[in-house]
């Protein structure tokens, strides 16, 4: 399983966690987690075809008795009571939100790892409103694609507007945000002067990001 992204995720998760990997697809992550020493781990997916592939992979590692697989839309058909950790990776924000909106099933869960494919600002805002603390956010690059991996724990905090937009400031990622700033400045140059509202929004983001980088 040659995925830097999944390896990174796997390394983040402590050995004592009890993990549900939602949208597991090929079940690479549950297999990696089990091999690392996490003994309570399951995978689930909304598509039977994905689970067929997952099952094949699990059998090829002789783990069919160790890693349960469940067909489910998000947490709907999963008994979450023996688990405390969720992984949601490789999905878009709207799917992630749909999954996390099923609040009853989330009760035993105290840690969530999310690698969304898009809309990081909407995700940060949603998690903040729903009483999850952004404990860590990691930015990694694989084959020229940038991924954000967020680690959430239960609790309350008030993120500022710039933290919702760009995450909590971390010196190690300043270079990445400098590139974001360059992108925004290029976008602003491409918006004609008469599109005042669009320019205003981008200018506001540029200002926030400039302050954020100070
Ligand atoms: C791109 S794959 C990501 C696979 C793996 N998590 C990874 O990061 O490499 C997304 C998977 O999410 C599944 N999925 C999409 N919506 C879902 C939902 N509501 N509940 C469970 N799984 C879902 C898809 O069937 C697909 O297998």
Describe the structure.
The chain has 214 residues and is α/β, with parallel strands linked by helices. The protein folds into two domains: 4-158, 3-Layer(aba) Sandwich (Rossmann fold); 169-214. Helices cover 44% and strands 21% of the residues. The chain has nine helices and seven strands, in the order αβαβαββααβαββααα. Strands 3-2-1-4-5-7-6 form a seven-stranded mixed sheet, with helices on both faces. Strand 2 (41-45), helix 3 and strand 3 (69-71) form a beta-alpha-beta unit. Helix 1 crosses helix 2 and helix 8 (174-190) packs antiparallel against helix 9 (196-213). It is elongated, with a radius of gyration of 19 Å. The model has no long low-confidence stretch (mean pLDDT 96). S-adenosylmethionine binds next to strand 4 and helix 4.
